[in-house]
Amino acid sequence: MPYQNLNVTVSTADAQAVRDAFATILNKLPFLVNLTPAERKSTFKIGPDSLSFVQNALTAALSNPAILPASFSTAEFKNDVDLFGLLTEFFTLAASITSQIDDTRVAVSGEAMQQASQVYNYVKTASKVTPGLKPVAEQLSGRFKRAGKPKTPPTP
Q1: Residue 128 domain flag
Q2: Is residue 18 situated within a structural domain?
Q3: How far is it, in rounded angstroms, from Cα 4 to Cα 110?
Q4: Total H helices, total E strands in the chain
Q5: Which of 17, 46, 53, 66 has the fewest other C-beta atoms within 10 Å?
């Protein structure tokens, strides 16, 4: 569906239901972790090529348990591979929703900024003849003031 101006509201009950849905997700996945940047950098990552390697290694482990040491848990390995697949599915669903939420947020913010600019122009014009609007116009004009001298690019 092409983007059109949005004129919607979300009821308090629906907003709470969405919050509750996110809380349910976190409640159902209590094992989720937050990696530090260093942990993220040092962890092996599975891409498309690595995924087939991992799946083939799992098949080899399941088909040839006698070659693995007793300390290696094929069941734990299989659980990790299965969990990775499920989390990848969840991630894809969440990423799609995140993208739609962000696109809608950007569209609505553009509409709000355009409308705010119209209000500013009306206030600025009216402040010339309406007592008490000059401070409002000055407050709104703060959005358009530069925060200092523009930086000059370094000379080569």
Answers
A1: yes
A2: no
A3: 12
A4: 5, 0
A5: 66
- The helix or strand, by DSSP H or E, that contains position 123, with its residue range, turns out to be helix 74-126
Per residue in 110-145, pLDDT (tens digit) is 999 999 999 999 999 999 999 999 999 999 998 888
User: What range defines the domain where residue 73 resides?
Assistant: 43-144
Tell me if residue 35 falls in helix, strand or coil: coil
What's the number of domains the chain is made of?
1
Residue 48 CB coordination number (10 Å): 6
| Percent of the chain scoring above 70 in pLDDT | 92
Say how far apart CA 91 and CA 97 lie, in whole Å.
Answer: 10
Distance CA 62, CA 78 (A): 9
- The stretches of 3-70 forming alpha helices (DSSP H) are 12-28, 37-42, 48-63
Backbone phi and psi for residue 21, each to the nearest 5 degrees, phi listed first? -65, -40
pLDDT tens, 88-103? 999 999 999 999 999 9
User: Residue 58's closest CA among 79, 29, 38?
Assistant: 79
Asked, for residue 138, whether it belongs to a domain, the answer is yes
